[in-house]
Amino acid sequence: MTGNAKIHTRAGALGFSLWKQAPRQYFAIDGGSGAHLLAALAERSPYLKQVASPRHANVLLIIEPISAKLVPAVLEVAKALARPAHALLLGEPRAGLDGFSGGELVRVEELVPGARRISEASVETVLDTVLQPEQWPELAVVDHAEPEQTISLPSKQEQELATELIVLSLGPIQPFTAGPLRLFLICDGEQVLSVQVESGYAYRGIDKAMMQADWQDCLTLASHLDPLAPIAGQLAYVRAIEQLQQWQPPTQVVTLREAALALERTQNVLWWLVRFTKIVADEQFLDRSYRLATAFADYTVQLWQHLPVTWILPQRSLPTPAVVKDTAASSQFRQIADNIQALRTSLERNRFLGLRIRGIGELTGERLKEAGVSGPVLQGSEHGSGDVQSRLVARLQSAADDVHEIAKTLAAQASVPIQEASWEVPAGEATVRVKGPRGDIGLHLVSSGTEKPSHIEWRRPSAAVLGLLPELLVGQKLADAEVIVASLDLGMAEADG
Amino acid sequence: MNSIVVSLLVLLGVLIGAYCIAVLQHLVLLGPQRIGTALLLPLADTLLLLRQENLLPRKADTFLFRSAPFIALSVVALTSLVLPLGPGLIGFDPSIGLFYFLVLLSPFVVSMMNAGWSQNSKEGLFSTFRAAAYLVSYEVPIGFAAIGPVMAAQSLSTEQIVNSQANLWYVIWQPLGLAIYVLAALVVTFRHPFDSALSGSELEGGVFSEYSGPRLLLFRFALDALFLMVMGMGVVLFFGGWQGPLLPGPVWMVLKTFLLAALVLWGGRFLPTLRHDQILSLSWKILLPASLLNITLVGILTLIIPGGSR
Q1: Which of B41, B51, B199 is facing A52, going by the closest CB pair?
Q2: Across the interface, do A282 and B272 touch by the CB < 8 Å criterion?
Q3: pLDDT band at residue A292, thresholds of 50, 70 and 90?
Q4: C-alpha span between A250 and A172 (Å, rounded)
Q5: How confident is the model at residue A339 (pLDDT cuts 50, 70, 90)?
Q6: Cα–Cα distance measured from residue A281 to residue A275, given in angstroms and rounded to the nearest whole number
Q7: Does residue A323 or residue A51 have the better pLDDT?
């Protein structure tokens, strides 16, 4: 549902039948894994509209897992909804973490009585369910008296013409990051004076859980590190094990793994672009990016005979060709790469959009390297001015390059001898890096030759950027703050771990 | 009795007009192939909001919060009175009709400010200040843009302004005035891309963040109706009002108004939501000098163009 491969859309399915439907306005709470699903859902049907205030909504979408820290915010939103309203829970409460004691995750049904659950859902299933909310009971009144958490104002120098400072809390439920994050902005009018970042709302304790699981179970947990990029986490883990096993995969396997990773990166970039253009409210680019993202998602779903998560395993060679033998696929991907390039060019040249994205949120390459930032954020600073626009251009350029590479791989795929996965891990240490959608995902793995890893440490690209937010936002306009944060494409589940 | 019937008819006309603007918005967004959906969606939205609970925020200024949507709708109904649909087909035609229309735009923005202020929330407060800043900034350019046609027609009567365009629409020789008017009108009616007081996820829906149900519906109707009225006044000022061949005057007036509205809504699709300081800069640094230039040009052209002054 929330992973890349499961975003599947059905073009033209909504027609006359929707005339009988009542429109729904929804407010979404994303526990950290639903950014792609929400982006795909937001533009899917005119009868389903996302709203900025829970007061305007009659449907509450909650995408699990929900951490204990996020519960007060969930309750506050559930209470703020105007009745009659319905709530829909998407995903599993523990999302693959069953049996492992990682972070403290909660069962939302107990907090939001009357909510209905869809465990495994495509965009269509969610759409069908949401547009027929009479099928499940109305949301009961939620009792919640916890006062809103805030911070105290700093003392201000007495001046003759002084304005009053105000603390504005953005989040934890907000649309500009993939998952929950709270920003306390101390503003002097519309000017941001200082920022406090509060993260940890999407914490699941992946590291802790992996230390308790055996080598095979750790694979699932690794793929949950970033629910929006499961292949990157899984591949990092598989590579680390293979390094410990001192096994070098054949070139064909490496190429296919890289292709799967590139597909995931591109899909992340395209869905991020949909969210970004929605935030700056540019209908023209929103429309174009949405069409590109859905087309790409559809091609990807049709491409694999076996989903990459089933064959990216240590020492595993493919049982049958992983990719559907389709001569059209390669040209389709080339077409998409060209469309991404065209979109990049028009975004770069569009002066109106430039008014909102040029010259704000600038970061130098040196500062980013110092903070350990990698990926498109760093590329934006190295190849451009380091502002929001350059990050946008860098992302689209890397996506276009990735899709070109995929097209080449598809044109020249070859079969390799079948080999089963090996889970025997000798003692030793391994350090690997994988190019994820938000930067390099690093993994340091220590094995003492037993059934479980003795030490695991992830290097999370979004966590590195998180620390830069205060210096990035100070001095900016309030309206720019969300655009700047959105341009960083922070995956909060990945950042919180 | 007669005036009550007229008032009810005006209100009905305003509501139907607002509905048509909502349809037009959906049509621009969805494309002409989904006209059925565009026609039905506003009705479905209306029913949805009518069913919804009318929430009142904790510690809100109850009177201001409850009255704001009614003030907004009343103001729009009052502005519609001076909009001529055809020769003699006007609610009332005072000699200062245009002035009356422009003055009434302020109470509308004030109703929006009341809505934001009364919510007892920081988001509402921010939106109120934004709305107030836009009001102060855009009353001047919209007024100055309207002075051009007034100078040419030598009258503030809306009927007189239409009649004076019998030979030549003012848009032909006052295109700058029209551009200024449309831009300022978009700000005053809180339309995209100047809707940062209403939208923006940083303010959770802005002025309306705490409104729900029928009160929210009233506000949405008022906003759409005001947009219609302002576009209608644009047609009166620059496109010869009801004048046109073959078809009856009111049909021309309605057609021109919706065409102008559609063009403006369509154009908005190509722009992102502008930041508040960019909106204010546009007013003070570009539109205000441009409107002064427009007045100067119109003054000169009025003397040059045969029949320029009536």
Answers
A1: B199
A2: yes
A3: very high
A4: 45
A5: very high
A6: 10
A7: A51
DSSP, res B287: I
Residue of B nearest to A190 (CA): B126
Q: What's the DSSP call for residue A359?
A: T
Per DSSP, the residues of A53-97 read: SGGG-SEEEEESP-BGGGHHHHHHHHHHSPSS-EEEEES-SSTT-
- Could you report how far apart the first and last alpha carbons of chain A are, in Å? 20
Which of A97-106, B133-142, B292-301 is the least confident region?
A97-106
Overall average pLDDT of the B118-146 stretch = 88
- pLDDT confidence bin for A457, thresholds 50/70/90: very high
Domain boundaries, chain B: 2-304
Highest mean pLDDT among A20-29, A279-288, B280-289: B280-289
Residues in chain B with CB shorter than 8 Å from the CB of A477 are 275-277
CA distance A244 to A431: 9
**Helix or strand or coil: residue A182?**
strand
Kindly indicate the confidence band of residue B3, based on its pLDDT and cuts at 50, 70 and 90. Answer: confident
For the stretch B35-91, pLDDT in tens is 888 898 999 889 888 988 888 888 889 999 999 999 999 999 999 989 999 888 888
Residue in A closest to B33 by C-alpha: A15
Encoded tokens for B148: 């051009």
Q: Look at residue A183 and give its three-state secondary structure.
A: strand
Cβ-Cβ contacts under 8 Å, A46 against chain B: 26, 29-30, 34, 37, 41
Instruction: Give the integer Cα–Cα distance in Å for B128 and B110.
Output: 9
User: Helix H segments across A350-433?
Assistant: 351-357, 365-370, 376-383, 388-411
Q: How far is B239 from chain A (nearest CA, A)?
A: 28
Which pLDDT belongs to residue A2? 37
> Sign of the CA dihedral A244, A245, A251, A255?
negative
Q: Residue A52: pLDDT above 60?
A: yes
| Residue A350 clears pLDDT 80, i.e. is over it | yes
Distance of CA B95 to the CA centre of its chain: 21
- Nearest C-alpha in A relative to B129: A189
Work out the widest C-alpha separation in chain B, in whole angstroms. 63
Best of A56, A76, A352 to mutate (most B CBs within 10 Å, chain B) = A56
Residue B15 phi, psi dihedral angles, 5° rounding: -65, -40
Query: Where do the domains of chain A lie, and which CATH numbers do they carry?
Result: 4-135 (3.40.50.12280), 165-198 (no CATH), 207-496 (1.10.645.10)
Instruction: Report the amino acid identity of residue A468.
Output: L
Scan for tokens 């049996």, then name that residue: A99
Half-sphere exposure of A2 (CA within 13 A, CB side): 31
Q: Residue A136: pLDDT above 80? A: no
Q: What is the pLDDT of residues A188-230, one digit of tens each?
A: 888 999 999 999 999 988 888 888 888 888 998 999 999 999 9
Q: Which three-class secondary structure string do you get for B193-236?
A: CCCCCCCCHHHCCHHHCCCCHHHHHHHHHHHHHHHHHHHHHHHH
Residue A400 or residue A16, greater confidence: A400
What was the pLDDT predicted at B305? 75
Rg value, chain B, Cα? 19
Chain B touched by A46 (CB under 8 Å): yes
pLDDT at A170: 87
The continuous run of DSSP H or E covering A147 comes out as none
Q: A117 φ, ψ to 5°?
A: -115, 135
Q: What residue has token string 């163009």?
A: B305
Strands (E) located in A134-190: 165-170, 182-188
Sequence-separated (6 or more) residues with CB below 8 Å from residue A485: A176, A177, A181, A183, A469, A473
State the burial class of residue B61 (Cβ atoms within 10 Å of its Cβ: 0-12, 13-18, 19+): middle
| SS3 at position A193 | strand
Q: Tell me how far apart the alpha carbons of residues A89 and A445 are, in angstroms, rounded to a whole number.
A: 35
